[in-house]
Amino acid sequence: MQVCVIGTGYVGLVTGVCLAQIGHQVICVDNDVEKVKLMQSGQSPIFEPGLSQMMTANMEAGRLEFTADLQVGVDRGEILFIAVGTPALPSGASDTRYVEAVARGIGQHLNGGYKVIVNKSTVPIGSGDWVRRIVLDGAAEGRSETPSFDVVSNPEFLREGSAIYDTFNPDRIVIGSSSERAIDLMQQLYAPIVTRQFAQYPDLPPVPVLVTDLTSAETIKYAANAFLATKISFINEVGNICDRVGADVTLVAKGIGLDTRIGNKFLQAGIGWGGSCFPKDVSALVHTATDYGYNAQLLKATIETNRQQRLIAIDKLQQVLKILKGKTVGLLGLTFKPDTDDLRDAPALDLIDRLTHLGAKVKAYDPLISSDCNRPDLAKITLTANAQELASGCDALVLVTEWQEFQELDYALLASLMERPTIVDGRNYLDARSLANAGFDYIGIGRPPLD
Ligand code: NAD
């Protein structure tokens, strides 16, 4: 099928590359000309495991192209994915200006043939009909007298760091539309994924496809992220209670997670959730609820619990080091999760703000963030090239991101380089006993100190 993906960020680029991989003819559009040039030269602008190789293979096979010209994309594509960003506004509502610009542009370039316009971006509930109206407005300004199209909501559930795996092995595919023609085309598009032709476990039953109305599909995306965020805030709250009563939250999580009604996923206590989706999506759902006269108290508490949780490592550092002014704290990891270079709304950024506000010197080491990244929010810290350089002269370390390589570090060597070997394991990721044997004062989240 002929597919056009507009917006080549973490979602758009992965979607475009994976659809090309399953045999579709894909053109990806981005209005960032430098990014397009980079991709045309075969380089991925983002880090995602396996993405670069799959991208170049599909370009060489002639199934994947990049352009900055929306008209070319709209002309070519029968299915047009909108995959641009929907960041949060200061009010907590979703900023839909990029979606609006793309929808208008699509309308202006419609050429008479039937198109399926797919909202892949996470858009506020009710946006399907709004996108239809914007496309019609654009068409009135453009060259199409009688545009023929339908709008579909097809929310994305991939996780950064395992985006390709998730695209080929989804738990479900949600298609929201009132048009049978559009639903049929979407089912054809995804058939190779549904039948697990590209899956890691091809013998599993077909991927469930849930066909809904537009509004329900849009709500599913927000409800899924809000539930996951709430589950993490819940276990973090339990962890804070564990801290006070002397229980170990890792054992408590295991004990409750064995209950199949609860499940063991998303029950790791730590320094809170972040990233490009949870914070903005939970806020946007609260905002939508308010717009419709409902006070979403549970979701507000989910956000507030997380706000406090992000700074819990500071409390723990203060308990050990007392005054942080003049001390040096090293952060192991910066990205909001491992295997991504994404720093959007990462808990590390709040930690940096608070530590520097308290007068501490902050150093950091992250496998994918280098000192030439030129990010203004990292300007006040020292980025090091490895963990040894990080530990050297530090009063304490905080493990912020659970990068696999942090489990394999020579902690005895790191301890020997530090003023006072203390580590706050912000993800309960390291083996407490090994760290203690290596000479560290190990502090977990919601876990009692070692005997
Ligand atoms: P992103 O910021 O990484 O990428 C957005 C891209 O859109 C950028 O390359 C930008 O240059 C491009 N763009 C902006 N305006 C454009 C225009 N007018 N024409 C063409 N291109 C334009 O965003 P993302 O993380 O990929 O997220 C995209 C959407 O998917 C968001 O709504 C997000 O909530 C949702 N989502 C993201 C994830 C995730 O893990 N990142 C997961 C599920 C859903």
List keywords for this structure.
single chain, 451 residues, alpha/beta, Rossmann fold, N-(1-d-carboxylethyl)-l-norvaline Dehydrogenase, domain 2, six-stranded parallel beta sheet, 17 helices, 13% strand, globular, binds nicotinamide-adenine-dinucleotide, 6-PGluconate_DH-like_C_sf
Describe this structure in words.
The protein is of the alpha/beta class and 451 residues long. It has 3 domains: 2-212, Rossmann fold (3-Layer(aba) Sandwich), CATH 3.40.50; 221-308, Orthogonal Bundle (N-(1-d-carboxylethyl)-l-norvaline Dehydrogenase, domain 2); 310-443, NAD(P)-binding Rossmann-like Domain (Rossmann fold, 3-Layer(aba) Sandwich), CATH 3.40.50. The chain is 43% helix and 13% strand. The strands form 3 sheets. The protein has a 6-stranded parallel beta sheet, sandwiched between helices. Strand 13 (422-425), helix 17 and strand 14 (441-443) form a beta-alpha-beta unit. Helix 5 packs across helix 6 (127-141) and helix 9 packs across helix 11 (278-291). It starts with a strand and ends in an 8-residue tail after the last strand. The chain binds nicotinamide-adenine-dinucleotide (NAD). This is UDP-glucose 6-dehydrogenase. Keywords: NAD, Oxidoreductase. Residues 330-432 form the UDP-glucose/GDP-mannose dehydrogenase C-terminal domain.
